[in-house]
Design brief:
homodimer, alpha+beta, Arc Repressor Mutant, subunit A, SH3 type barrels, 8 helices, 40% helix, globular, DNA-binding
DNA sequence: ATAATTTATTAGTCTATTCTAACTTTGTAG
DNA sequence: CTACAAAGTTAGAATAGACTAATAAATTAT
């Protein structure tokens, strides 16, 4: 059984290996807000448990086993978020911190029951896929709003940041999953977009646009 | 903020001070399955946080502050048990271990929401009172089945042990909260009782009878 | 291709929580 | 009132996880 600390390292490793599969000690240290030497020693420990592949001075890689165990934690996190929103009435901006704690609960029946009560959902309240029980994660083919072009009509489908601040910002602009967005203009310098959300005109910074995943529904 | 470990000591202290208010290091050590020296040093720590009153070679006492913080943990435990049974469909024998973990979650809104969804319950699924937000705990005036006499008609109102084994035993005898029990005979030697539960006759050991709290409803 | 910068590792320390072994106090049985 | 058992404490060590300072390897930039 992995400790809470080990679980947090695994989760961070999975989160950081979206692209390259390989994660530097430095990135991991920054992500976890922990110093590099601490990370190095934890990598040795996780390697001895066959959860990561580790060699001195090389980036780290989750093993199949490590990837699976990490995905199960993510599964518990996202099921919890869904449960908090759908069954307990929380807003999508309130659930991250609670789920961050509940994801470490050791009780398969607890999460199975959530899953069942929710009707075996595929997506969490932020549009991220809920890994299945074997640890498989399937993302739909979304694109970042920041990669779309002027005139496109888009549907907001997922957000890449679940912090309360970011989600409160989206709430204040009436941006929810499913909301339609039309790109009226793009500022070439910094990627700021002028968009239409329903009848409202809004300005979204480049940073915000990078965190919004959309489906292109331009007719 | 208290650590998970500290919280477990506080809870144990509260559980053991039902009668005398004072708890011996030895009892605490046994209850937590931890050696006495470890307990001693934790008592010094809790004393420095003004959670217990501690003097060398004397039994320990929760301070008002300690009692309150312990009760809040018990509140979270019992609200969770109630939620698991009422809103998630678990049996009363399945919820203790899960609640044991969830009671340490740091999120007042999470427990407030449970409370609200449950309609502000006063009792948990085992008949124990749920402490209020200030930490006040009010037990109804139950008696132990083991203290009742032949011919009494009783209503099972609470159980003093929430272990899965014990509760599965009660399930197998159709004993639930609210069930009526008539004492047909008491074995003087060991307190074994012959009882009627509905139309069924059952034998309950003295140990079991001590764990059952009842209301006397003899006509 | 060599210096400068960044990244990673080693070595040693710290805190929280636990343990064992040895000693001290308290309380009780004659 | 003593002697012994039970309860409690002290001292010293272990483990997990985190840190800092110093060193080493790898990368980048001239």
């Amino acid at each position: 059984m992995n400790s809470l600390t080990e679980e947090n390292y695994l989760k961070a490793l999975l989160a950081l290996s979206t692209n390259s599969d390989e994660v530097s000690i430095n990135d991991l240290a920054k992500h976890l807000d922990i110093k590099m030497p601490t990370v190095t020693s934890m990598m040795k420990k996780l390697a001895s448990k066959k959860l990561v592949q580790y060699e001195s001075y090389k980036p780290v890689k989750l093993t199949k086993k490590g990837k699976q165990e990490a995905a199960i934690i993510v599964r518990k996190h996202r099921l919890t978020e869904m449960f908090l929103v759908e069954k307990m009435g929380f807003g999508w901006e309130q659930v991250h911190d609670i789920a961050e704690q509940i994801e470490h609960i050791k009780s398969p029946p607890f999460f199975d029951k959530m899953d069942e009560l929710l009707g075996f959902p595929k997506l969490d309240p932020h549009g991220s896929p809920i890994p299945d029980k074997t640890g498989k994660i399937v993302w739909k083919h979304y694109e970042k709003l920041s990669d779309c072009k002027k005139g496109d009509t888009l549907m907001l489908s997922a957000v890449l940041n679940s912090s309360a601040d970011f989600l409160k910002f989206l709430n204040s602009r009436n941006l929810k999953l499913g909301t339609h967005i039309i790109i009226d203009a793009i500022e070439p310098f910094d990627g700021t977009m002028s968009v239409s959300i329903g009848k409202r005109k809004e300005i979204l910074s480049g940073l915000v646009c990078e965190k919004l995943l959309v489906e292109n529904i331009t007719h």
